[in-house]
Amino acid sequence: MILTEITAQYSAEQLISFIHDIGRVLPEQNREDFLKRLKAAGGITETAPEKDAKNQPGFDEMYKLVREHLKTIDSQEVSIEGILNEEYDDWYDDSGEEYYYQDDSGISDMLADACEFVHTCMDMERYQEGYEIGSQLFYMEILCTNDYGGDDFSLEDLVNYELLNCDLIQVCLDTAYCAYHATPLKKRPSALYEVILNAKKTEVTLETIMQHGDDELPDFQDFLLLWIAYLGKETGRDADRLILEAVNLLNDVPAAVRYAQQYVNVHPVGKREICRRK
């Protein structure tokens, strides 16, 4: 059955619904072309030629605004307010929270804009700005005041207390992807490791960063060797899991065993895992 015969069987409402569904599930990089074609089909013409995404007006202004907001938050000029929950009773193992929190300073909105800006940077290939803002988001300390003093909150704390609606894994992947592209090869391992370590998201791995973009990561094989050498000197669970993944990405059994033996003093668990898998 040809396309004309198929579409003739549907009502206008059904076709509209179908177009909406197609537009919704299209990958982000294909959506703009889809909208252009849809406008052209309806006789809608663009009033002005589109500009290169890297030079879109407003990016520099947004970058400046985001930086100012993060500076204000990081200097603790503004704060989240913790209010004592008077119904909370720690004598009876109360499942409720001792405090509830409110954000009269608009901190959550500022941070949500910053998270979205990092994704914009990745899409527009403004990697240096994305790496800078994303990194700051994960190591900044957000002041929360209460009647007894104050505490420092992280980005994750705001998400956990439902003050910020944000996918932190997405933000970490955006930041890591920007970090990979923004830093020279020799400095890339330390930059990437710092992003992953500060984000504290075990779901983020080199493989997920590779899959996060549309194109292959440049100089990947050279980077992989530097990445293994760098992780071989780091300690902790993150370094353990990342070096194990990196060695497996080599797809080279003798090299994997060699690296496992080389870094056994720092990563004994890694050696056992590699030898078991091989």
What does this structure look like?
This protein has 278 residues and is an alpha+beta fold. Among the domains are: 3-41, no CATH class; 53-87 and 95-182, no CATH class. Helices cover 60% and strands 7% of the residues. The protein has 14 helices and 4 strands. The protein has helices at 3-8, 12-25, 28-41, 59-74, 107-124, 127-139, 155-160, 168-182, 188-199, 206-212, 220-231, 237-249, 253-262, 268-277, and strands at 80-84, 99-102, 142-146, 149-153. A 4-stranded mixed β-sheet has the order 2-1-3-4. Helix 5 runs antiparallel to helix 6 and helix 6 packs across helix 8 (168-182).
Task: Summarize the model shown.
With 278 residues, this protein is an alpha+beta fold.
Record the SSE blueprint.
Blueprint (H helix, E strand, L loop, with lengths): L2 H6 L3 H14 L2 H14 L17 H16 L5 E5 L14 E4 L4 H18 L2 H13 L2 E5 L2 E5 L1 H6 L7 H15 L5 H12 L6 H7 L7 H12 L5 H13 L3 H10 L5 H10 L1
Parallel strand pairs: 1-3
Antiparallel strand pairs: 1-2, 3-4
Helix pairs in contact: 4-5, 4-6, 5-6, 5-8, 6-8, 6-9, 8-9, 8-10, 9-11, 11-12, 12-14, 13-14
Please tag this protein with its features.
4-stranded mixed beta sheet; 14 helices; 278 residues; globular; single chain
